[in-house]
Write a structure and sequence with these properties.
Length: 182
Amino acid sequence: MGTLDIPCSDKGKSEAIAARLKFSDINYFRVYCSPLKRAVQTTEFLFPGKNFIVEENLIERELGLWAGKTFSAIKKEFPEAFLKSGKIDPYFTPKNGEPIENVIFRVKNFIDLLLDLFTALKYENKATDTYNIAIVTHNGIIRVMRYLMNTIPISDIFSENEKHLAPIKYSFDGKHWKQLTI
């Protein structure tokens, strides 16, 4: 989809409402989401009545000419975008698309914002282990986050799909990210 600003489908709505239970047992200090309609609506379904922060850095990668096309159509029309392994080359930028370096930069800015928040809370002597944050964003952004948190190499960011509405939990010890679940 990229940055096509389409609403949640009926199926997506139903899945988000059904997934609500996965998130209901945790008290979230903050909830962030992408500004795209489908992410905002998913956030509203997952966290009804909860205030959330729309974060521009969480918007999906602009896919240019690839927007709205299936993987198989992209593979057929743009074979130069694929590595010999059949994976999309993460450094290939579709015409009118956003370079992966830009996506990495803005996702890193968002992660740094979170780290600054936790540093400020720690400085104020507040127990940061009770400050859970939920992030509702897109497949590509989640994969870039996983790359930045050292749980997948950059070469694999387009080789697997993230499960929709499946929580991934991380902890940060001040130096390293640790993936707790997937």
